[in-house]
Specification:
homodimer, 95 residues, alpha+beta, Arc Repressor Mutant, subunit A, three-stranded antiparallel beta sheet, 5 helices, globular, DNA-binding
Chain lengths: 95, 95
DNA sequence: TATAAATATCTATATATGTTAATACGATAT
DNA sequence: ATATCGTATTAACATATATAGATATTTATA
């Protein structure tokens, strides 16, 4: 497998992680260096706790988010602030 | 269904369209206002014609690409140049 | 009109992803 | 220690997507 192909696959994996309504909403929520707990996210977005946790773990595994645990709480945040730009960009492209 | 949710779904559909190695490669190929025929694309990327055509139609249907037919040839191009920025952005985010 | 070139579509199979609900785990406080 | 809160995992099922090969459609030209 060529290097170029590997890069394409990795990039598409990351995009695929973001390409979901709930996960897109999560990324938007975490713009500007915000950090939020699972509870805060599931309450803000009005989704089940298990659903939030599930999508957060997908975003974490695909390198979109990172976590810090503080006691009972897990605070998620964007690994690369730049990723929020993707959301802005794709929003501008909707006619 | 709320307006916000509809926007999220549309945005994620567009991202999902791009989130595939071959389709990402196609978008990269069409940066800077380039226009390419199906044949040129499948030869450049070393993929079957049917595969190229298939992915091009996905990108067209999801609003990523447009087509102009000129005689026998169909020339595809980015509907929003801005979309190429997404590729640049996601590439920069790979550690 | 017959043929070739360019592109699109279809079918079938495999694989991946999403959804929901239930349950388990880990940390804290009582 | 046990009850509770916050979070993660699992299982079961439905749906969507990818892949490959064969074939159809459209257009141009001999």
């Amino acid at each position: 497998m060529t290097n170029e192909l590997t890069k394409l696959i990795q990039a598409s994996e990351m995009l695929k992680a973001i390409a979901h309504p709930i996960r897109l909403a999560i990324v938007q929520l975490l713009e500007n260096d915000k950090r939020m707990s699972v509870t805060a996210i599931h309450e803000t977005l009005n989704i089940e706790q298990a659903v939030a946790s599930h999508h957060l773990s997908i975003l974490k595994n695909k390198g979109v988010l990172s976590v810090d645990r503080e006691g009972k709480h897990c605070f998620y945040f964007l690994k690369h602030q730049r990723l929020a730009e993707i959301v802005v960009c794709v929003n501008k492209c909707q006619e």
